[in-house]
Amino acid sequence: QVQLVESGGGLVQAGGSLRLTCAVSGRTSNTNDMGWFRQAPGKQRELVATISSNGATRYADSVKGRFTISRDNAKNTVYLQMNSLKPEDTDVYYCKANVRWRDFWGQGTQVTVSS
User: Fold this and answer.
1) Could you report the per-residue pLDDT of 40-63, keeping only the tens digit for each?
2) Contacts by 47-51 with C-beta closer than 8 Å and gap 24+?
C-alpha cells in the first residue's frame, strides 16, 4: 500500500510564496515520476509540474519561472516551491507518484491567493 500526504497549502496574498510538501509512505520501492496537479471546481485536473526519478522536470507554461519542483529520493518526498503567486493559482493541489508503474494520488491541499 502507498500513501501520499500533502501539506503546506494555505492563504497567501498575491506576490507571496508557499511551499507544498508531499510525503510518500508504504511500499515505495521503484518510485518513478512524481508531480503536482491542480484542480478548480468543475474543471479538469491539470498538470503543474513533474519530476522524474533522475531529476528531469517539466512545467506548465503558466507556472514556468515562478514554481520549482524538487524531490528527495531518500525521504520519498516531493516539493513544490511556489513564488510570485497570482489569484489564478488558487486551486486544490494534488500530489501524484508513480510507484511500480501505478499512479497514486494524495488527498489534495487548498491554495488560495488573494488579490
Assistant:
1) 989 999 999 999 999 999 999 999
2) 48/80, 48/93, 49/80, 51/78
Q: Tell me the three cell numbers of residue 42.
A: 468543475
Residue 84 has pLDDT above 90, yes or no: yes
Query: What values do phi and psi take at 63, rounded to 5?
Result: -120, -5
Contact of 41 with 114, CB cutoff 8 Å: no
Q: Using CA atoms, how far apart are residues 14 and 27, in angstroms rounded to an integer? A: 38
CA distance 113 to 29: 36
Task: Dig out the grid coordinates for 92 from the structure.
Answer: 486544490
How, if at all, do strands 31-39 and 10-13 pair? unpaired
Strand partners, 98: 103
What is the pairing mode between strands 91-99 and 109-114? Answer: antiparallel
Give the three cell numbers for residue 88.
489564478
Pair 8, 56: CB distance under 8 Å: no
